[in-house]
């Protein structure tokens, strides 16, 4: 049986790795949609893009800065804790583990909780509810980032830190190294598409903007579950 190694300890049968790449692209769309919702409706905070939050934390002249720095800080801490937890749970193994599916299922549940919170809360959102939704959304994005790191380490793809993906893409072009250009470009475009769709849906109705991130999260979960099952069949 031929196999492609996706990360230390993972031996992925040829063909299955394409499904993992598809998961990364779908989750990148989810990240774009999530950041559009969070930025437009949760006080101008990013819950997928932590670099953006670090910059926001320094913009002391921005209107409403105290709330901005609180939201950005909550998002950063929740994201850091979430990534740590996701990486710890989804440990590498001889064959891609069902733990990857468990982590992504948790992230989908968190996205669903954000949607429910938005639907049942009074508007404008009370401060504590807004902070809670920022934390839940950041945890969801952290889980997705952890899964992407486990399934796409060779390409340098991450579904939330696209600056790194773009850097790897250009660096390998400059050095004329072989690379997974297709998945890298697709992830970047998917992030933009997700943000665009999210912003447009927020304009139609805020609840639609809140619901959109859950759709690609569930789609990514389904593709990942099938990919892991297929890897186990071929690996067994």
TrEMBL record:
InterPro entries with a match to the protein in the record: DUF1275
This protein's record includes keyword Metal-binding: no
Organism phylogeny: Bacteria, Bacillati, Actinomycetota, Actinomycetes, Micrococcales
Entry keyword set: Membrane, Transmembrane, Transmembrane helix
Protein name: DUF1275 domain-containing protein
Transmembrane segments: 20-45, 65-87, 99-121, 127-147, 185-204, 210-231
Pfam family, one: DUF1275
């Amino acid at each position: 049986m031929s196999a492609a190694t996706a990360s230390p300890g993972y031996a992925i049968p040829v063909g299955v790795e394409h499904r993992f790449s598809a998961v990364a692209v779908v989750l990148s769309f989810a990240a774009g949609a999530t950041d559009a919702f969070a930025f437009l409706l949760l006080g101008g905070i990013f819950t997928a893009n932590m670099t953006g939050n670090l910059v926001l934390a320094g913009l002391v002249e921005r209107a409403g800065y105290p709330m901005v720095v609180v939201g950005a800080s909550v998002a950063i801490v929740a994201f850091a804790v979430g990534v740590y937890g996701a990486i710890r749970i989804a440990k590498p193994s001889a064959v891609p583990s069902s733990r990857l599916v468990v982590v992504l299922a948790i992230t989908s549940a968190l996205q669903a909780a954000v949607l429910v919170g938005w639907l049942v809360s009074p508007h404008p959102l009370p401060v504590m509810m807004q902070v809670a939704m920022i934390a839940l959304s950041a945890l969801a994005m952290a889980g997705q980032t952890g899964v992407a790191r486990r399934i796409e380490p060779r390409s340098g793809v991450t579904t939330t830190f696209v600056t790194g993906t773009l850097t790897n893409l250009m660096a390998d072009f400059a050095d004329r190294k072989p690379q997974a250009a297709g998945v890298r470009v697709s992830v970047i475009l998917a992030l933009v598409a997700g943000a665009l769709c999210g912003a447009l849906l927020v304009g139609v109705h805020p609840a639609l903007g809140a619901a959109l991130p859950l759709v690609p999260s569930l789609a990514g979960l389904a593709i990942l579950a099938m990919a892991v099952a297929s890897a186990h069949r071929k690996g067994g």
